[in-house]
Automatic annotation (TrEMBL):
Family affiliation: Belongs to the cytochrome P450 family.
Organism annotation: Zhongshania arctica
Names of required cofactors: heme
Keyword DNA repair included in the entry's annotation: no
SUPFAM superfamilies for the chain: Cytochrome P450
Tagged with keyword Iron: yes
Entry keyword set: Heme, Iron, Metal-binding, Monooxygenase, Oxidoreductase
Name recorded for this polypeptide: Cytochrome P450
Length: 416
């Protein structure tokens, strides 16, 4: 990836703003080894080059206050002035995120977001909570009987997979297919940067998941139920007709955006507790601290390391005047470890005060599913911690997921 150059905007303008060509500065998120322990490099990057032009002609914004400044004050879009997305594969059309609410701005974004909020809200969270409690109890019953589990395959994947299938009305027999297609589609957010063979795999998965959800929407339109797809149809009809294909895209986007990130929230949270037994002990003493555990887990090891925005007019930040159409990567992982914002930021501390991190994004595009993800994580982390209170947890070898997010593929643990 070091030689890749994507000319999103006037390349020379970005070079002029930076005083020279882009440089990964030793922190290349496309490097397979990046996920192992990226934070020493991220910290060095933030101190050496807080507004960093990369070799792929995007700007990494590395300080917490600068990220907040852009989210609050810069005039931005999710797409370039040409209408193209800065990260998507332009040939990836069916089941893609091009028409998803996350990729929209202005009135269209507001309309789609309101449609989804009417369909997926705290009522949805409360309706799913009993099923989440039952699922995590079932997982831990089996784990204790077996003497261990894979935190990812047996817990962090199972909880969001079952919940999303239940919410969408997807039959249990289709869940394995759903898991496979969703995992592939997660990489669609930054598919433009991926090898051709991976892009082709993404396109095929997009066709398959679009076929499935377009049929599901058509079926629900004839026979509405209590699932989210039915609620999206009802909500959409309040605003006038929305084509079934676009409704299918919103449903696909919701599950893909929330699936792997929730796996990371639960998996990375469990790992942080296991690797910091003093903090695990504090949590076990008072599990009402679970929301603080989630916030600190998101800050300390967020599954999403950056989100993108596109400037719709020039904006000065960190002493650099960035041009219109500049593609910004708001570097959440760097901001969440910024010592100017967080005291002793490389320490996992569930008693941390002033812990308003940016892991769920911000502004108009603040994460729609954050309450559902938090509810799933609350019960998963609490059940795991309480049920292993009198056991020694022995962690096995981590295998990292090929996802663009910082998410593990396997994390086996045994109990003794």
């Amino acid at each position: 990836m070091e030689t890749v150059k994507l000319d999103y905007t006037a390349y020379n303008e970005n070079i002029a703003a930076n005083g020279g060509p882009g440089d990964w500065k030793g922190v290349n998120p496309f490097d397979p080894d990046y996920r192992i322990n990226p934070y020493p490099g991220i910290n060095a990057l933030r101190e050496a080059d807080p507004i960093n032009l990369t070799p792929v002609n995007t700007w990494r914004i590395n300080r917490f206050d600068d990220i907040q400044n852009i989210l609050r004050n810069a005039k931005t879009s999710q797409t370039l002035s040409s209408g193209l997305s800065p990260g998507f594969d332009p040939l990836d059309r069916r089941g893609s995120f091009l028409e998803f609410v996350l990729n929209k701005d202005g009135d269209e974004h507001a309309r789609l977001r309101q449609m989804i909020v009417r369909s997926m809200n705290m009522k949805t969270v409360r309706a799913m909570e009993g099923a989440v409690i039952e699922t995590v109890k079932e997982v831990m019953d089996k784990a204790l009987a077996d003497g261990g589990l894979d935190i990812i395959k047996d817990l962090a994947m199972v909880v969001p997979s079952r919940m999303v299938c239940t919410i969408m009305g997807i039959p249990e027999e289709d869940r394995e297919m759903f898991d496979r297609l969703t995992a592939i589609r997660t990489n669609g957010f930054f598919a433009r940067f991926l090898p051709p063979e991976v892009q082709e795999q993404l396109r095929q998965a997009g066709n398959d998941i679009a076929d499935y959800f377009e049929k599901l929407v058509a079926t629900r339109r004839k026979n509405l139920g209590n699932d989210l797809v039915s609620q999206l149809i009802i909500s959409a009809d309040q605003d006038g007709h929305i084509p079934d294909e676009q409704l299918a895209v919103q449903a696909i986007g919701i599950i893909v955006a929330g699936y792997e990130t929730t796996i990371g929230l639960i998996g990375n949270g469990c790992r942080s507790l296991i690797e910091h037994p003093d903090q695990l002990a504090l949590f076990r003493q008072d599990t009402s601290r679970v929301n603080a555990v989630i916030d600190e887990g998101l800050r300390y090891d967020a599954p999403i390391h950056f989100i993108w925005r596109v400037l719709t007019e020039p904006f000065e930040i960190g002493g650099k005047l960035l041009p219109k159409d500049a593609v910004l990567w708001l570097h959440i992982a760097a901001g969440n470890h910024d010592p100017l914002r967080f005291e002793d930021p490389d320490t996992f501390n569930i008693l941390r005060e002033r812990n308003a991190n940016v892991s769920f994004g911000g502004g108009a595009h603040f994460c729609l599913g954050n309450q559902l993800a938090r509810m799933e994580a609350r019960h998963a982390l609490t059940e795991f911690s309480e049920r292993t209170k009198h056991l020694k947890i022995n962690a096995g070898e981590i295998v990292w997921s090929p996802s663009f997010f910082r998410v593990m593929g396997n994390y086996p643990v045994t109990f003794s």
